[in-house]
Amino acid sequence: MPTEPRGAFEVAELRAGYGKTLILDGVSLAVPAGGRLALLGRNGVGKTTTLATLVGQTNRHGGSIRLDGVELGAMSSSARAAAGLGYVPQTRDIFKSLTVEENLVTGLKGRSRSALEEAYELFPRLGERRRNGGGELSGGEQQMLSVARALLGKPTVLLLDEPLEGLAPVICDTLMAALSRLDMTILLVEQQVDRALDFADRVVFLDRGRVVHAGPAAQAKADSALLERHLGVALAA
Ligand SMILES: Nc1ncnc2c1ncn2[C@@H]1O[C@H](COP(=O)(O)OP(=O)(O)O)[C@@H](O)[C@H]1O
Ligand SMILES: [Mg+2]
Prior knowledge:
With 237 residues, the chain is an alpha/beta fold.
């Protein structure tokens, strides 16, 4: 029997912030199962707050978050993870005092240790470094570890917050190539606009906690006026 595609993600009218301060003022977006959405915008517009709200780390004042039709909004962060949300935060929250392998084990969520081979297959570098401490890793290796750990939980939707930040171009290539091989729904926040638009099917631009544009990624990439307006950058031709 063919399995149903999983990972259809629908966010409607999200209003959220920190304490009483409202940052997101009605953010809506939808990613079909297996789709890839880039979430872009200038610094401070609410991209990280959006992802943090999806995983239950801010105060949500309203709106809905549905994964395959199931409402996640009232669930705890850990229940959302169990329901299929994987999160790679901007801060790369790996444990520096644990080894690479021990870090990965924290992502197993009850799966057997043999699943660790999936991580080493995706990022052979992590296999070579499995006995090294998290604090001994380069920035690129830490990011690979952070991504690999999130994937071990077998998410159906992966949320990535600026995975390329501070990484050398060759490491960005490696990371994007690995992400391109993943078969799941992906929501990517990234400042490297050209790479993000090449990766994604669709794009949503945020400004001051609101969606100001949504459309096909390829179309946005070809529209320098649009990019200039929402990001203040022009891509090289
Ligand atoms: N923990 C926090 N407490 C209060 N305000 C915050 C917090 N984190 C972010 N903000 C504010 O929320 C707004 C959006 O920030 P953020 O979501 O980090 O933007 P982006 O990721 O798009 O750069 C900014 O005005 C920022 O100062
Ligand atoms: Mg951010």
